[in-house]
């Protein structure tokens, strides 16, 4: 874990938000969501502000508990969480057929954990696009520490309207990131535009599955918990993602919910009934310690006011994710591999 200590966590809390404004930002963020009277259309209309506030508030928590790659992975028995995450990233690189010299785009790259791993694994140059200034600043520092600053870079931009010329990249991927887009078609169409003809786009999407019942109040509560805890305007069905890809012009090579058939459940790291030394901070005991540590840091003034509120909605997200996984109504790893045809008529 790159941020190992309590003081490192405290120093990053709030991201680029002024420390005195963190509590106000938390309150503004919460009001976007169902539990505080927020509406889906408002979240979609203000997605840039909502998602930026979310990542300013939570990035240090993520890095403290999860490491540099903020995503889930299918997991084999005897495999550590860290190993499964690396394998999940390598799988994506292999599916894209990455070759040395390829110019690759990571859409919604976080602080760049997958970007660095995939660049080293495939000997490619990877550009990460991200609209959050704090994450980019942190990612550049981690690139420097890892020694990949010459082959990996970051661009601050909205993935709904990227500044790259048409047909710029040899391959594009997104890892649990385009779920933040207010409109899947608009996001995929922009990715289609900057991808070279004949090349591939692969992603892991957060989706509700066909088992989700919109008329079931418990299902709706779980969905709302995931949305507030993870900065999402909405959570689409797998079929909606697939249809949006086709409308954007992509040819679907194959798609599958990789959560189905995973030897160990993807939500295991967040399951309070599970104990693990290798991912201790994610266990119930680790989360209890973190909760009280943040409370103490906020009390003595090392962490800004509002930090405990962030920890609270992240706990709510964890509960929603575990229940969504158990009931098989939600997946964080709906995978697809899609190709941009060589010509528009193909």
TrEMBL record:
Catalytic EC class: transferase
Domain called SAM-dependent methyltransferase Erg6/SMT-type: residue spans: 54-341
Keywords, in A-Z order: Lipid biosynthesis, Lipid metabolism, Methyltransferase, S-adenosyl-L-methionine, Steroid biosynthesis, Steroid metabolism, Sterol biosynthesis, Sterol metabolism, Transferase
Pfam families, alphabetized: Methyltransf_11, Sterol_MT_C
Signal peptide: none
A Gene Ontology molecular function term of the record: sterol 24-C-methyltransferase activity
Keyword Lipid metabolism: yes
GO terms for cellular component: endoplasmic reticulum
Alphabetical list of CDD domains matching this protein: AdoMet_MTases (cd02440)
Assigned protein family: Belongs to the class I-like SAM-binding methyltransferase superfamily. Erg6/SMT family.
Protein name listed in UniProt: Methyltransferase
Lineage: Eukaryota, Viridiplantae, Streptophyta, Embryophyta, Tracheophyta
